[in-house]
Specification:
The chain has eleven helices and no strands. By secondary structure, it is mostly helical.
């Protein structure tokens, strides 16, 4: 019989599962905290943004939007385009979150790329409540990000150092991920389409305005390629 209460075992198992995310989220969170502090916003802002937004890519972009006093419309459209990828792997997670009750709202909110990779297989500790396990894994990952953001902001305000290049950390993560996927995947159509669209939009719209049209066209391209990818086994729900 499954246990439906919080036990030491389920906490320990969830923490163990989340450990691969610990270093990455802490380091990237520190980078965000540094950028936000350099933009003139202190530790309270770092904590609040990481608690309520909890999107690494968008928070990095958000620090720039805040520093440049971007309009609300620009912020909303950019957020939609940057985070629309969650729709692709969020829908398959619905079946895993059925029956979660009051936990469902937080589980949906806390679903990030890394959390998805840890929970998408549906496995959980034998004899334990899987929804408690899912909640704890999501919560631990969220805590790592918050701690990293706050720590980076505090360190940046307390220690004078050259933060040039910190903003490239998230870009570096995406480049590494892209390179690995391009190297290992047989179907390289999505990656190729993404690169071509990005380059074309950069030429047409310039570095300041290319992001939104690029994201829109990439989303359209992925929808157009969906049937081909499904046949090739690249998309599994």
């Amino acid at each position: 019989m499954k246990k439906h209460n919080l036990t030491k075992n389920v906490v320990a198992e969830a923490f163990k599962t989340s450990l691969p995310v610990l270093a990455g989220y802490t380091v990237l969170g520190i980078g965000f905290g540094i950028l936000l502090q350099k933009a003139g916003y202190g530790v309270i802002w770092a904590a609040v943004m990481s608690i309520t937004i909890y999107s690494g890519t968008m928070q990095y972009v958000g620090a720039t939007l805040i520093a440049e006093a971007a309009s609300p419309v620009t912020a909303v459209i950019t957020t939609l385009m940057v985070n629309i990828r969650y729709a692709f792997y969020g829908i398959p997670m619905i079946k895993h979150y059925n029956g979660t009750g009051l936990k469902k709202g937080y589980l949906i909110f806390a679903l990030t790329d890394e959390t998805y990779s840890l929970l998408c297989d549906g496995h959980y500790p034998e004899g334990e409540d899987k929804h408690t396990y899912q909640f704890l894994v999501s919560l631990f990952n969220h805590i790592y990000w918050i701690v990293g953001s706050v720590l980076g902001n505090v360190l940046s305000s307390a220690i004078a150092f050259d933060s040039k290049g910190v903003e490239f950390s998230m870009t570096a993560i995406f480049i590494a991920t892209f390179a690995e996927m391009f190297r290992t995947k047989e179907n390289r159509a999505p990656a190729t389409a993404g690169v071509l669209i990005s380059v074309i939009c950069l030429i047409l719209f310039g570095s300041v305005y290319f992001l939104i049209p690029t994201m829109m066209l990439i989303v359209l391209a992925l929808f157009a390629l969906r049937k081909k990818l499904e046949k090739g086994g690249e998309i599994n729900e």
